[in-house]
Write a structure and sequence with these properties.
The chain is mainly α. It has one domain (about 40-160). It is about 80% helix and about 0% strand. It contains seven helices and no strands. The longest helix is centred in the N-terminal third of the chain and has 40 residues, at about 25-65. It is elongated, with a radius of gyration of 19 Å.
Length: about 160
């Protein structure tokens, strides 16, 4: 899969080239462009999250092999945090998927997509850092019941190793 997705821009070019019309001011074309940009942004960030989680997982394995507990505990905590961020993004996408069809006019569609784009950008680009790790852990806990407990355990163990 990674080979096929290496050139993200080329992958998305096909979809963007289909979002055309003789009348670019038509609401349907504006809506198609908004939805295409929305999908592109979220797809890119899902790939980034997947890559980060994969690499953290590789680090966990290396730390286990090296018996480096300090690195292991910090990477385990990072693994949970990044998985929680991914769960938070997926939750935002699910919410957008249910809200977008309810927005029949272009202004309301623009507002909804803008709101969801801001949520994800704050999550990944730390813009105004309004998404707290506890919010993300709470979202992950809905899918993985012991996420909060595990995260607190890894945090406590990691903090104990510092002192």
């Amino acid at each position: 899969m990674w080979e096929a997705l290496r050139d993200f821009d080329a992958l998305m070019e096909g979809a963007e080239s289909r979002v055309q019309s003789a009348d670019p001011s038509a609401e349907s074309v504006k809506a198609a462009k908004l939805l295409n940009d929305f999908a592109r942004s979220h797809f890119h960030l899902l790939l980034v999250a997947q890559y980060k989680i994969k690499e953290i997982g590789r680090g966990v394995v290396a730390a286990l092999d090296a018996r480096n507990e300090t690195v292991l505990f910090n990477l385990a905590r990072a693994f949970i945090e990044h998985t929680a961020a991914l769960a938070y993004q997926v939750s935002a996408l699910e919410k957008a998927a249910s809200e977008i069809p309810k927005k029949p006019d272009i202004k309301r569609l623009e507002a909804t997509i803008s709101k969801h784009n801001k949520t994800v950008h704050k999550l990944y680009y730390n813009e105004k850092a309004s998404v707290h790790v506890n919010d993300m852990i709470g979202t992950l806990t809905k899918h993985y019941g012991s996420a909060k407990r595990d995260y607190e355990l890894w945090a406590k163990v990691g903090d104990g190793m510092k002192g």
